[in-house]
Amino acid sequence: MANAAEAGTLLLGDFEVHRLGFGAMRITGDGVWGPPSDRAESIAVLRRAVELGVNFIDTAESYGPHVSEQLIAEALHPYPSGLVIATKGGFDRPGPGQWRMNGRPERLREELEGSLRRLRVDRIDLWQLHRIDPAVPEAEQFGAIRDFLSEGKIRHVGLSEVSVEQIDRARRQFPVVSVQNRYNLVDRESEAVVEYCDVHQIAFIPWYPLLVGKVADGTAPARALQDIALERRATPMQVAIAWLLARTPFMLPIPGTSTLKHLDENVAAAEVTLTADDLTRLG
Q1: Which helix (H) or strand (E) holds 265?
Q2: Catalytic (active site) residue 79
Q3: What global pTM score does this model have?
C-alpha cells in the first residue's frame, strides 16, 4: 500500500510533515459552495488520507464557506498526533464560484475566530493569508497577523498568491514558513517564487498542482508526460505529482479529491521516481 511518507519530509516551521499533503477544497459542493453531493465519501476520504500517511491537510474558511473545516473536524477530531491542519482567511464568498478579496483586519479576525471554532482547536497550526488585498493597506493586514501570533491563536504564518517582493515585505513583519501559489508542470509563472522558497527554505505549496485537463493536452510537456507515464506504469497525474516532488525538497503538493479512488492514485505518486532523463524531457 502506498504511503505519503514515501515522498519524504520537510519542516513547516517546527512541524515535520510528509511532502505529499491533501487539499480539502474539493470535498465541498459545486463551485466550492455548500455541502458535498456525497458527504459520507468526503468524510471517508479525509479519514483514508490520514490512514495513507498524509499528515498535512490544507483548507480555508472560504471553502464552502465553512463546510471544508466542518467536515475535517467531523471526520478527524480529536486529531491524531502529528497531523498539521492549515487554513486560510482573506476571501468573502457571495455565491458559488464567486471569490471576493477582503483583507480588512476585522474581517480577518472574524475568519480566524470562526476557523478556531469549526476546527475545534485553540490554535491554528498554519494560518495563511489567502490574498494580500490591494484595497487594504498592507501594513494593516500584516499588523493583524502579528496580533494573531502574539495572542497565540496561530502558530505559523503562510502567504498565498504572492510575489517575491511581497514575501520579502511580509518577512520583515513575521516569519513566513510557507507560500502557496499556483504552480504545476504546464503553468510555471511562479518559478521565481519557487526558487526564492528553495533558497530560503520556505515550504512551497502548489495549488492546482495537476491543472486538471491541461496535463493531457498537446503541449510538449504534456506529450512527454503521457510517454513517461506509460514507461513508469503510472498515470499522467502521478507523474505530474512526482515532477513537483522532484523540483525542490521544499515542495509540498496538496492534490485534492472527493473520491477514494483518486485519493489512492494521488498518494501512490509518492512511489514514482523520475530519472534525470525524465526530468529533462519534461522540461
Answers
A1: helix 260-267
A2: no
A3: 0.96
